Amino acid sequence: MTTEVKVPTLGESITEGTLAQWLKKAGDTVAVDEPIASLETDKVTVEVPAPVAGVIADTAVAEGDTVEVGAVIAHIDESGKAGAAATAGAQSTQTNPAGAGENPGPRDAPESPHVEPGADGGETSESDEIPTLSPAVRRAVLEHHLDPTKIKGTGKDGRLTKEDVLAAAQAKEQPSAPAQPEAKAPSAPAAQHAPAPRIAPSVSGERREERVKMSRLRQTVAKRLKEAQNTAAMLTTFNDVDMSAVIEARSKYKDLFEKKHGIRLGFMSFFVKAVALAARDVPSVNASIEGDEIVYRDYLDVSVAVSAPKGLVVPVIRNAQAMSFAEIEQTIAEFGKRAKEGTLTMEEMQGGTFTISNGGVFGSLLSTPIINPPQSAVLGMHRIEERPVVENGQIVARPMMYLALSYDHRLVDGREAVTFLVRVKEAIEDPTRILVDL
To answer: Is 157 a catalytic residue?
Structure first.
């Protein structure tokens, strides 16, 4: 009996996605609910589980294809027999285009010496051991006519990377240069012509281009950022903040904080609390424009930019104004962990009212962040560095950070934007203000 594998529901208002990678291939045995493919949507990556146990009989779409919710992408043979025999030849052709497999013809003979420099020393793998290749790696394998089963992968879980393939291709070319002098001519002429193979570096230095289809995440980011530029009247104002008080507070209480709450005390919780305090004084920064109306809020849902393997994502800390430092830090840590795993849901990344972006973790000194529509403002944090400042007529070194507030000038006036940024600065330079609600 054969069962269809269909694209699952991907979230509200999402009707399609991109098949990012096959985690299993035709002929592989799978268990119930075992992930067999990953789908990339506008914001998250979703795994497609096997509805039944059995053997994958065939795959109906290729990596990179766009698929709609409910579309059939594969079939699973519950008997566990038909898939292996019927698809062995297909696997050899599709995933091993270089010609390696169980039935090598005369054309396969030259392949072995070509890729031995990049091999791990083993014999030719069977077809069911052929590694899963990304589109970029597959193109490189085809371009250089290599056998992927003989290249040792250095990626996660031993997967092949494009660099592995290029290294194997370069190693394949290197033995060919000294091979010519083996047909030894008289020693003197041979010595005269020995430098000839040195022309080879010009080949390895040739310029190359690679075309890779934009991921759905990158397409969505590009669309929304351009939408923000086209819609909002964006302006950015700057200030700097002395981080001495926050650094001192962290150093004094970090051990007790971690012992009690099981999480480290970071800078972000101070800034979230400072933003919540400042937003009460300047509510327009936490508002948005809907049609010809302005929506003001008495709550703060902070979108926090988190780095994920395929780009930045912005999960939302709900009701941040009512959360403690520990709750904020725990929420951010959980978001960061799940962003790397690709398990954040669409609901967790929708509905923010204000965004905080910390480019400082990547070494950014200053930036002009772009608003995340329909929000009206975003706060940019940057790296901390010691700079000379004047205090009481004396030049002293202080750990300073530049702050940037980009805002929609249609809703937020310059006076309000500067006031908001000053309130944040005051709260960070004197954290007691946060505790006594000033």
So the answer is: no
